[in-house]
Amino acid sequence: MKLNKALFIFIFLLLSLGSLKGKECDSCLFKVNSLDKSFSLSGTWLFTREDKAENKNIGLNTDSWKKIKTPGSWKPAYKDGKVYEVGWYRGNLEFAESLIGEEVVFLVDTYMGEVNFYLDGREIYSRGDRNSYERYYAVQSIPIRFKVTKRNHIVAFRVDTILMTGVYQRPFELRRYNKTDMNLAFWHVYGGELRAYFAIILAAAGVFFLIVYFRTKNDFYFLPGLVGLGTFPFLMLPVDMIQKFIDPRQTFILHYVGIAVTLLMHYKYCQYFTRLHKFWDRLYTVLLSVIAVLFVYLAFNYHGKVFDLNRNILFAIVLVITAKIIYLTFKAMRAGVKGGSIFFYGETFLVLTVLNDLMNSKGLLPTVGTVYLGMGVSTFAIVIIAANNYTNTYIQNQNLLVDLKALNDSLEEKVKERTRELAEKNEDINTMLHNLPQGVLTVVKGTTIHKEYSSHLEEIFETKDIADKNAIDFIFGNSTMSSDQVSQVKTTVDNFIGEDMLNYEVNEELLTTEICIKNPNSGSEKYLELLWSPIHSIEDEDVLEKILVCIRDITKLKALTAESEEQKKKIEMIGQLIKVLPDDFGEFVSSANKYIKENTSLIKEKGELPTLTDMEKLFRNMHTIK
User: Which pairs with CB-CB distance under 8 Å and at least 24 residues apart come from 591-600?
Assistant: First the structure.
């Protein structure tokens, strides 16, 4: 019984293997029973890299053709490592009787590759060089329309692409033709207009932030500006409208320049969240710059192997740098750096879309292309961070303007109050200067007299022509001092103003403190006392800015002092007399009268010319009295 059971299982497995073998080429027959919903064309398709015109013909011997999983890269079809850019796909569509007479749409995405589509050996669609009349469907699924006229149709299409991958992403399906097909409209907007909108918005944001940078010189806005403009080539160049003006192959190669520039700017933007290592920063800058320049060169001097190698290196660097960016921004987010979380989530989304497209191109996970979304969203995250910073600065400035307006509203009253206080102080100073019984002036730079001085100064010098005069010439011009002495004072004052205060303290004794001046008109003399006072600078207390000179007329004081001295001598004489005893004083008076009478008699007797002997006697008598 067990043997029979084992035999039964063995026979069942053989039959199963046989049935699987019979379906090995499911591309030979896709049975389309209904188109109420889209019919997936994913599966195994016949493929060849032999570029022959007869590959489109019905009844072609396809024994030499390979079988590959589609969507997916065509590279696994041949193991010899050769580089080829042209491949042919071939399949058999079997339609239900109810679908005969229906118009259908064959959706296939070859990502800017040239396409020739054949139905039963007849070409019904082609896309090659730039075309000013027809839509190119550059990075969108191509809607190829045809009418089902019989149950079996052989489809063959030729793909010429420098990506060397063929049909590798979705959508890859058959749909009933519908003039208002929203699903088809979505795929076209997703791969075309939405990409263009992203490009235009980010470029406009880039221009805006560059203008902000040049106006404010704030480095924070420089990289967002470059990122916005750097993303533009990657997003915009593959859009349909560009293909009307530039060769599609050139725009396709050049759009990789945008990836290199954008990636570099994304990495450099990390410097606002964390410290970048200078070595890696310079290395990535050099590598990505070389890659970008090489893509520009290849756009005009194409070489397949170099392009493929350059592209693979670019994507390898993209994975390394984006992973590093995620690590750095994650640390910044954990540290609570402002804007770090937005940048982190944007870069994480970019990495996920890059991984999706890499697996897509390798046939590991056939999906739709998403890297442009990742590039746009991650760049938009940087724009949002810059916009937040700009708006926060704007709001702060607005708040400052409100505060400033409130301050201005009260400023007028404060100015009036301060002006009133200042006027009062000025009035007090003027009153003091006009009533001060001293001459007061200020010596400023250039050894000139400041326009504000005391009124008494005009009385002292008997002139009103004082302001802006040379101070030394004015004070010492009519003095009894010698020219050398005046020159010494002038040199000293010149060396004081604008110099260190220490200079004044050391040489202060060189300034004259008392002078005598003569009025050139009346010839009268005045004695003046000078008091010199240094005034330091407001900005720097160690620098002498002005010298205040107080001048006092001491002529009367001098006279009183002289008179006082005379009186002092007389008092001293009286004091000495008081100290003499009466008898001694009486003897002195008697002796003095005797000598005076004797001298008087000699003068009367001898006349005006006494003899020498008489002269000696006169002097001797007077000396004795003294």
Answer: 591/624, 591/625, 592/625, 595/621, 595/622, 595/624, 595/625, 596/621, 596/625
For 217, other C-beta atoms within 10 Å of its C-beta total 9
Pairing of strands 544-553, 439-444: antiparallel
Q: Is the dihedral of CA 201, 203, 209, 212 positive or negative?
A: negative
Q: How would residue 608 be classed by pLDDT, with cut points 50, 70 and 90? A: low
Distance CA 579, CA 582 (A): 9
Residue with tokens 């491949």: 87
State the DSSP H helix or E strand holding residue 616, giving kind and residue range, or none if neither. helix 612-625
Mean pLDDT, residues 172-199 taken together = 90
Give Cα 152 to chain centroid, integer Å: 67
Q: Rounded CA gap, 68 and 26, in Å?
A: 11
Distance of CA 279 to the CA centre of its chain: 24
If you average pLDDT over residues 24-41, what whole number do you get? 80
Strand (E) positions, 519-579?
A: 525-536, 544-553
Residue with tokens 């259908």: 104
Rounded distance, CA 379 to CA 228, Å? 7
Q: How many angstroms separate the CA atoms of 616 and 223, rounded?
A: 118
pLDDT at 626: 65
How far is it, in rounded angstroms, from Cα 408 to Cα 397? 16
Longest Cα–Cα distance of the chain, Å, equals 201
User: 515 has which bridge partners?
Assistant: 528
Q: What is the pTM of this model?
A: 0.61
3 state SS for 328-377: HHHHHHHCCCCCHHHHHHHHHHHHHHHHHHHHHHCCCCCCCCCHHHHHHH
Strand partners, 82: none
- 3-class DSSP assignment, residue 105: strand
192 in Cβ contact with 139 (< 8 Å):
yes
CA distance 428 to 434: 10
Q: What is the average pLDDT across 561-569?
A: 77
* pLDDT for the residue 365: 74
CA angle 374–195–168, rounded 5-degree value: 70
CA atoms 443, 445, 446, 448: torsion sign: negative
Mean pLDDT for all residues in the chain? 84
Residue type, 603: I
- Inter-axis angle of helices 248-269 and 371-435, nearest 10: 50
- Residue type at 463? T
Measured CA to CA, the distance from residue 129 to residue 133 in angstroms comes to 12
Per-residue pLDDT band at 208 (split at 50, 70, 90): very high
Closest CA to 109 of 321, 341, 299, 367: 367
Closest CA to 44 of 73, 78, 70, 72: 70
H or E element in which residue 625 lies: helix 612-625
β-bridge partners, 108: 142
pLDDT of residue 132 exceeding 90: no
pLDDT reported for residue 299: 93
